[in-house]
Amino acid sequence: MTSLPWLDPDQLWFPPAEQALDDPDGLLALGGDLSTERLKLAYRNGIFPWFSDDQPILWWSPSPRCVLFPEEIHISRSLRRTLNRGYFTITADQAFPRIIRLCANTRAEGTWITQDMIDSYGQLHKQGVAHSIEVWNPKGELAGGMYGLAIGRCFFGESMFSLETNASKVLMVHLANQLRDWGYRIMDCQVESGHLLRMGARSIPRSEFLSILRTCVDSSPDHSDWGFRWQWPGPEV
């Protein structure tokens, strides 16, 4: 770790993502800050922060990279039945501060979402870069949620939580289809999990991921706001 570059908060740059370590997989640099400009530069280049309160800021770009291409979302038969019930309502950008705090506070294994990160991503939300997706139950209570960044035609998922069975799966279906309708090319999931793989995510080489970013981060999507309009078509599908 001592051979990794330390980033100066006064200098806005990152080493190329290809220079990340193999062990631990993807660790690229330390230090710097969590300014909104640095965060946007990081994501545009396939890099994200992930660290604990007792660590310096750690910057990562793992290989392979877990991604979901919106058109490849997988809907199982049991999930199809859940969607047909229409139990959950999905919105976007209605409760960003609550979503990011619930992402931090509902993880049994602890969280990397420090107060500084909450503050910085909150600023990105005010800039229209970070977004929340909310899952509501029929009582109007939050049943699940997610936040991430939208840059060009790429969506970078950061964290997700679920308080009710299937809430996160329903969220993923709505988000993938809405992103597809808006012309997004890719959703970054960062690292594999069984849940993501069952939803249709897969791992690709970092070189392929970076190539997609270079093509898409400067391309405008086909929407002007984050009002979710996609709806599950119903039992006939």
From TrEMBL:
One of its GO terms (cellular component) is cytoplasm. It is an enzyme of class 2 (transferase). It is found in: Cytoplasm. InterPro entries: Acyl_CoA_acyltransferase (IPR016181), Leu/Phe-tRNA_Trfase (IPR004616), Leu/Phe-tRNA_Trfase_C (IPR042203), Leu/Phe-tRNA_Trfase_N (IPR042221). Its main location: cytoplasm. The keyword Cytoplasm applies. Keywords: Acyltransferase, Cytoplasm, Transferase. GO terms for molecular function: leucyl-tRNA--protein transferase activity. One of its GO terms (biological process) is protein catabolic process. Functions in the N-end rule pathway of protein degradation where it conjugates Leu, Phe and, less efficiently, Met from aminoacyl-tRNAs to the N-termini of proteins containing an N-terminal arginine or lysine. This is Leucyl/phenylalanyl-tRNA--protein transferase. The lineage of its organism: Bacteria, Pseudomonadati, Pseudomonadota, Gammaproteobacteria, Pseudomonadales.
